[in-house]
Amino acid sequence: MLFASDIGKAYSERTLFSGLNLSMAMGDRIALIGANGSGKTTLLDIFAGENEPDSGSVTRRRNTTVGYLRQEPGEFAGRSLLQEVLDANHEVNALTDRIAATWEEVSEATDPEEQQRLMDLLSQLDLELEAAGGENRDHEAKAILSGLGFKQSDFSRNMKEFSGGWIMRAELARLLFRRPDILLLDEPTNHLDLEAHLWFEKYLSSFPGGVIVTSHDRAFLNQVAEQILAIEPGEVVHHRGNYDDYLIARERAMEIKQSAAARQEREIQRQTEFIERFRAKASKASQVQSRIKQLEKVQIIELPRATKKARFSFPKPPRGGNNVLTLTDVGKSYGDNVVYERLNLTLERGDRVALVGPNGAGKSTLLKILAGVLPFESGQRKLGHNVTSAYYAQHVLDQLNPNNNPLQELRATAPMESDQNLRNTLGGFLFSGDDILKPISVLSGGEKARVALAKLLLQPSNFLLMDEPTNHLDIASREILADALGDYGGTICLVTHDRTLIRQVANKIIEIDGGLPRVFPGDYDGYLYRKEREDEMRSASASTKGKTTDYPNGARPAASNGRRSRRIVTPDTRQQRALTKQARQLAARIDKISAAIAEREALTSELEAFFADPERIDYQTKLEESGKRYRTLQEEQKSLWEEWERVSLEAEDVERTLVELNNRG
């Protein structure tokens, strides 16, 4: 569908890419990756026909349609959300208009042959409309909007009422509804929450055309991409596989390249020594000249620059109480919209919480209440003993002094830290050389975000709250943030749609839905597993309720003697009921075991911190008691994990049997 041959692009003296070749077929899923400023958006502009390459050519198969999602939304006419999406499919609109015009011609035609010709044309147009999805266009548009997080009540709202993030979702919905042959998507997930992420991934997996997408979301790239087009310094790499496959292949290629470069350097050194030794000897003149010519022809192997992570340490946070923060009967409303009513929640020391849930459920509202930056109408917020909090949100970027450089910003936050440690910290956040001396005012959004994150993590807090900390960050910066949060010694609560960050950081998931928090001890994959099992159980239960197998041949027996007819329960139904009850009991047991494991892991972490503190080692009696307690906790954890595995396997067997029974019914 799309062919790029030896294309190149440069601005001034800087070459973005050159010698780029690509052949794209139907169904291809290509992730376009590279550092910020490497030329990804420029390349998408070229593929879309909105920019011209300096060299090479781009061609598309005849009649191929292209849909391009930019990072800024297009123009809307000010109609309702649904109408804006419906009007995006120009092919369907044109067919609909043509059918209406043809019907008018039929009503005016008097010649039977002309009428027959028009009726045949209408039949053909109806077939084309059906093929283009015209008959189900309302249903399809609403399905796309719902998948992207819009509520049914939003469909009739005027586009002028939506905020920037929702307008970007509407732009994406409009593009998907058009169903072009090729989708060019520049950071499509920036404004999507986790639920919309998952829906969008499934949509792309079934999309029949080709997709080229840029994203800083590693989990998204791994799910969607089957090919990687990487714009790297000095070269463009085309790799078949997802993002993780590409990283493994790149590491291997780097090792091979490093070995080849080392061999080449040794050979050049050997030849140079020969030339220097025998340059003055007439008998060796021809050999010397020959080797000089050989060296002139050697193409030096240049190793791509690798990002080096500097070692740095964050200040050790002060130790707080076991209960970090408690909300009691908290109520919060926005006008008539009640977000929380009698909300109760406790965060404990060592918790690393990710707040998840559908868009609009109140995750950011809850985070602001926890951070103490949003007032509420009723209830109480109580910080634990010696708890000091730090809050990160997008407005933090606006609080940076535009006249300061990054080093000055960090020094203002941590005046007692040495310049070397501040430089190391900035180096860990990808600032090197003269970058640390640039004014904040000239930095990009991603660079400002990295400065703000470095400042936050240098503060001596023991309770860190973060709202979408990965916005504006590329993949390398996100990985550095995850490493930094992994080293952070305090309690964490965050809202993010970056599943990779959640997987690397969270040890507890709190799901917000309908104004109620639901706590899932354990990591994100454990949470997803539990949700999947619950969905399967609900489906099995709904299927059981909808079947008529309680009666022979699916028919209800007639009532007799004025008595109410009794339901005939089959053996399969009895077994289904027993298994459903057993599944609920096993799920409750798994919850209880998971909570016990989390509690013991927290206590173990406290003891490990005690053992690592040299000042406490003098208390011999306390040390011996703690050692015994530590060994006991480890044994209890081992036993609990064994029980968790056994009960989980038993639960899987029960669910598998339920599914088999439902299928049999």
What can be said about this structure in brief?
The protein has 19 helices and 18 strands. The protein is α/β, with parallel strands linked by helices and 665 residues long.
Structure, explained:
The chain has 665 residues and is α/β, with parallel strands linked by helices. It is built from 19 helices and 18 strands. The strands form 4 sheets. The protein has a 6-stranded mixed beta sheet, sandwiched between helices. The chain has a 6-stranded mixed beta sheet with strand order 14-15-16-12-17-18, sandwiched between helices. A 3-stranded antiparallel beta sheet has the order 2-1-4, covered by helices on one side. β8 and β9 (235-240) form a beta hairpin. α12 (406-413) packs parallel to α14 (445-458) and α18 (571-611) packs antiparallel against α19 (620-664). The longest helix has 45 residues, at 620-664. It is globular. The relative contact order is 0.07. Mean pLDDT is 79; it is low at 305-311 and 548-569.
